[in-house]
Write a structure and sequence with these properties.
By secondary structure, the chain is an alpha+beta fold. It is built from four helices and nine strands. It starts with a helix and ends with a strand.
Length: 162
């Protein structure tokens, strides 16, 4: 009988702590379940810290070799605060990207092992097969809409977190 009363008390306390019909905070649900409608890739928040400013993006995660090979190929639009992150663990050297089958211009941002931007290839040319290299070993590459980095003042040395 004691166990039944204890269980009832626990259930009552838990019910009092949550809103009806809510299983997790809204912010947690939006990041846990976010999937891009076109690519089907997981979407996560990403922040570029520039001095005291925090520039926020929602980025698709290209985590597998297949997802990374496809990247943003064939996409015809990318919102101003959207992008794609290509994480690399362990860090990789000699990384370069190209624009094969990529319809829209992109800013390709190479992120060094300390999380800071190494270099930015701005407004890359759609469909170009010319390699765009990183300036050193990378833990990730961020692609955003072409020209957006300049609009926001993003430069080498800024910190990227995702």
């Amino acid at each position: 009988m004691k166990f039944g009363r204890l269980l009832l008390a626990c259930v009552t306390v838990l019910a009092a702590c949550s809103q009806p019909g809510e299983t997790a905070p809204a912010a947690a649900r939006s990041t846990e379940l976010a999937v891009h409608p076109v690519s089907g890739l997981r979407v996560v928040p990403l922040t570029v810290r520039r001095g005291g400013k925090r520039l926020r993006f929602r980025v698709e995660v290209a985590g597998t070799p297949t997802e990374q090979a496809r990247g943003l190929m064939f996409r015809t639009a990318l919102g101003p605060d959207e992008g794609m992150i290509f994480p690399s663990q362990p860090p990789r050297e000699g990384v370069s990207f190209w624009m094969k089958n990529t319809v829209i211009p992109l800013d390709i941002i190479f992120i060094g092992t300390d999380g800071r931007i190494l270099n930015i290839a701005a407004r890359t040319t759609p469909y170009s097969l010319e390699p765009v290299p990183a300036a050193g070993p990378v833990i990730g590459v961020l692609e955003i809409a072409g020209g957006r980095a300049a609009e926001l003042g993003i430069v080498a040395g800024d910190k990227v977190e995702w």
